[in-house]
Fold:
Amino acid sequence: MPLSLATLDPADIQKSQQDYLWTINFGPQHPATHTTLRIVLKLDGERVVDAIPDIGYLHSGFEKLGEQLDYNQYVTVTDRMNYISPMANNVAWHCAVEKLCGLELTPRCKYIRTIICELARISDHLLCVGAMGLDTGAFTYFLYAFYQREVIYDIFETLCGARFTNSYTRVGGLFYDITPLVVEKIRKFVQDFPAAFRDMERLLNRNLIFVDRTKGVGLLSKEEANNRGATGPIARASGVTRDLRKDAPYLAYNDFDFQVVCATAGDCFARYYVRMEEMLQSLRIVEQAIENIPAGPINVDIGERKNLPDKREVYQTIEGVITHFEMVMWNRGFEVPVEEVYCATEAPNGELGFYVVGDGSNVAYRARCRPPSFIHFAMFPYLIKGHTLSDVVAVLGSLNIIAAELDR
Amino acid sequence: MLTRPAVITALTQQFAGLTVSEFRGDTRLVAPREQAFAVLEQLKFAHGFDLLVDVTCVDYLNAREATDRFGLVYLLANTVENDRLTVRVFLNEPELTVPSMVPLWEGANWLEREVYDMFGITFAGHPDLRRILLPDEFAAYPLRKDYPLRGRGERHNFPVLRRDQA
Structure:
């Protein structure tokens, strides 16, 4: 089966068919793609003339699965979309379901979700900048970043028992309440992280090799960012001042003092820098939230019939028994309106939204995920054309492509 | 710049076939297939909806209260005024073609390819309408509701390579 060319311009096709061009297969297994994706590069010497992304190696039908698993079961699948920050995916999915049902979360649940979202953001950005450093030759930096990720994994493990695939949220609430031990660990992280962050900054921000390899590479203007659907840190590095945490505040983001980090350069270095500064802002949010978690229940009232009641209520009250029974019987309980909603959250990588179509049952009729990686990877050929082969890894690293989210 | 109700009023006056609905604070516009491009063009250039957030599709086969087979979803956002709007286009077999939005937003390219890949809806004027996630040999559209969940899949469509041929 010959590879069909994705080149749009006929003149480009002709150019890329000239036989002095080298064709290099980048991926599907390559240390610098970090995940399974393939790019066919046409090279003129070291200059990239054309890049043809070939994706789908990790396609596993997540959206089809969303039509078979109920609203609480599907959260385990969202874990596996962006497995770098599963908590953010969990929250995004259940925010959409709760919007469909019209549920108002308890203040305590909102705060805890905000905290885990921001920890997930720090963890995601650490991976992105760490891997970007690794690809451009800064191995120490990568280890510094991964040490801090490990601390966050420990926090998540204490919180919900799982390190990577957390599945922590439930419709209208959370799996477990936060414990004093977790609060203690998060406090310690908040205390220790700035020092590690300063070390990381000193290693890379003014590192000549890194700056030379990233400044002016992969330029994305503000107009092109909007034209190509960029969101999140990538759009903000190009001068778009859009952050859903400020623009359409969800969860408890209204209560906290933080800033939206923007840059205007739009190159790989700007994207790196925006991510670095966003970590500090996220830390500020965690710092404010962890000291002010409101008391009260984490789940919505059992009258809503949306989540399993506490065992004490099941054994001691009639409403508890009824709700528990309704919830565990596969053909009862859990009614959603026959409607459709789109709910977007500001995930670490950009706007992560779910388009959920409810058909009245406890299984979604359609569960569409708006994956930021997919939309960002679409602009990769545009960003890399004209740069050298060694810039491919810098641009890929700055886009933070997670193939599981890319292919779903 | 107009607020969202004013945008809706202006659009419904300009295009006759639009219907508007509201749910949980989201406004949805249903546009006829012929007007889809013009409506989105108007929204982009006259009303500042400069970001195409997502293009997706829902297959309403056997769905409750559904009259059409496919419903395309265009999610738009105004990054300056911070507003959102959903535009729906309903399609029925055998007319499964809509104009491509790539001339308006370059970002529609892969999103429309994905809809084509999963639902088999073709986008007229798309520069590169190929399957994106599934291999080219794949013959079916798996996110359609009539695609079975069990079975041996599409492996019969793929060429078999033995070791001595590889």
In short: Residues 77 and 100 of chain B are 18 Å apart (CA to CA).
